[in-house]
Amino acid sequence: MIKISKNAQKYIHKLLSKKDKHTHIKIFVTNPGTEKAECNIEYLYKKNINNKYKKFKYKKFNVYIQKSHLAFLQDSEIKLVQNNLNFELILRSPYIKKNIQKNFTSFEEKINYFIEININPLLYSHGGKIILIKVNKKKEVIIQFQGGCNGCSMVDSTLKNMIEKRLLERFPDLTAVCDVTNHKPSLYSYY
Fold first, then answer.
1. What is the pLDDT of residues 64-111, one digit of tens each?
2. Which of 32, 73, 95, 151 is the most exposed place for a label (fewest CB within 10 A)?
3. Beta strands of 101-191 (E only): which ranges?
4. How confident is the model at residue 156 (pLDDT cuts 50, 70, 90)?
5. 101-139 burial, b for 16+ CB within 10 Å, e for fewer?
6. Quick count: other Cβ atoms within 10 Å of Cβ 29?
7. Nearest of 180, 164, 178 to residue 114 by alpha carbon
8. Superfamily assignment of 2-92 in CATH?
9. What pLDDT does residue 12 have?
10. Could you tell me which CATH number the domain at 107-179 has?
11. What Rg value do the Cα atoms of the chain yield, rounded?
């Protein structure tokens, strides 16, 4: 899926060796399919891995990509570049700005894609995001806040005035959006 140069693999392994042994790499796209699309690489902790990710094995580490981002990251490459005295990972992906039409097989996939394209890019600016847990039989969308949104003092307003409003407008069959996050303010909570 993603070609990672040998030097980049060594560099990533070196970075991961300084972290907990259950730390992995996550590659994702903010604003996928738009002119503002950007590739991102960050640490992913074991407790945050779920069935929404696909795992790719490399010699000394694993890379996880959210399944809804796979089409945007096909034929991507990661290289290590030296700038002055620093090293930098460069991720190039030819499809991140393409409006990739996907045939979704389930209502839940459509909702998840909508969240990734239309809601999470707004939350990324605050260091947060939401993940779709499920759509229940009552047509309620069950979500969980992560990152800077977890413990944020404005989370109730964000849920009702932005997330629920947008989802109900786009999917009239839905009845509500419910948050199951155990909100604990932390150093990373956005205020």
1. 998 888 888 989 999 999 877 788 888 899 888 876 655 556 788 889
2. 95
3. 128-135, 140-147, 176-179
4. confident
5. eeeeeeeeeebbbbbbbebbbebbebebbbbbbebeeee
6. 28
7. 164
8. HesB-like domain (2.60.300.12)
9. 94
10. 3.30.300.130
11. 18
